[in-house]
From TrEMBL:
Enzyme class of the recorded protein, top EC level: hydrolase
Keyword terms: Hydrolase
UniProt-listed Enzyme Commission number(s): 3.1.3.18
Pathway note: Organic acid metabolism; glycolate biosynthesis; glycolate from 2-phosphoglycolate: step 1/1
Organism: Martelella lutilitoris
Protein known as: phosphoglycolate phosphatase
InterPro entries: HAD-like_hydrolase_sf, HAD-like_sf, HAD-SF_hydro_IA, HAD_sf
Enzymatic reactions: 2-phosphoglycolate + H2O = glycolate + phosphate
A GO BP entry: DNA repair
Molecular function per GO: phosphoglycolate phosphatase activity
Statement: the UniProt record of this protein carries the keyword Hydrolase: yes
Listed Pfam families: Hydrolase
Length: 280
């Protein structure tokens, strides 16, 4: 009997690419204005910082940009405040779940289903999204990597609300091993084991055939493809590629996995997340 849903987060529960693009673009435009340089000239430096910390959502990005450090040797954060505000404003305007996610999770909870989220996104922004979107009230467990940040950075400087607003209330957070990324069936199997469940009880849903579906199939867990999360904007992806934290080695790894491989999902959701109810 199926009684555990393990769900990917980005582009499965929300349109992460849209949120990232709008927020990052607003910050980039304002940063270029402050520095009086073309926005495109900043992209190589931004990518280097992202790759250094293994994330395309690095909270201290502006402080570590060489162009910012050269212009403002002291109090860089103060000078770049308009760019940070632009980022936050765009994020508030675009951060939302796909339709019916909350209602669907409430229905699953009423059926006694354990809801687990597994994401590659790091702690800081994942927790923010969970709290703002109401997922903290419905997801039982969250598995994600810890933040990679220099110990010299004081996170409190970028937190503008009371400290208790940054804590999870219901969701229990656990961390995946450092440096491990999808598709790694061993991580998925370890999550099931950590939950005290067996593979036959679990359903896994994700938007990526390569990262999610192939991983679930290799782990022996019922897989569901969130096809509804595939509506990607070419312009948004083009910018993401220019600043992505993925190293050439990671890109080559994905090519090898995809080369000659046809991944056929066992189940496909065309319309939306609400169709997952049919699996339980």
């Amino acid at each position: 009997m199926k009684n555990v849903l393990i769900t990917d987060v980005d582009n499965t529960l929300l349109d992460w690419v849209e949120v990232w693009y709008q927020s990052f673009s607003a910050m980039l435009k304002e940063t270029a204005r402050i520095l009086d340089v073309p926005a495109d000239s900043l992209l190589p430096s931004i990518q280097k910082v992202h790759q250094r910390y293994g994330t395309s959502e690095y909270a201290f990005l502006l402080e570590e940009l060489p162009e910012v450090q050269e212009r403002f040797k002291h109090n860089a954060l103060e000078h770049m405040e308009p760019a940070i505000d632009a980022y936050r404003k765009a994020r508030r305007a675009t951060l939302r779940l796909y339709p019916n996610v909350i209602e669907t999770m409430k229905t699953l909870k009423s059926k006694g289903i354990t809801i687990v989220a597994y994401t590659e996104s790091q702690d800081f922004y994942t927790q923010y999204r969970f709290r703002k979107l109401g997922l903290d009230q419905l997801v039982d467990y969250l598995y994600s990597p810890k933040d990679t940040k220099p110990t010299s950075k004081d996170t409190s400087r970028i937190r503008i609300y009371e400290s208790n607003t940054y804590n999870m209330v219901h969701t229990i957070q656990r961390h995946t091993p450092f440096g491990e990324i999808k598709p790694n069936p061993d991580i998925l199997i370890s999550i099931v084991r950590d939950l005290g469940k067996n593979k036959e009880q679990c359903v896994y849903i994700g938007d990526s055939k390569m990262k999610d579906i192939a991983m679930a199939q290799e782990a022996g867990i019922t897989d569901v493809w969130a096809k509804y999360g595939q509506n990607k904007n070419a312009q948004q992806y083009e910018l993401l590629k220019k600043v992505t934290h993925w190293t050439p080695e990671m890109v080559e790894r994905e090519k090898k996995i995809n080369f000659g491989t046809i991944i056929t999902p066992s189940h496909t959701l065309e319309l939306g997340f609400e169709q997952i109810i049919e699996m339980f």
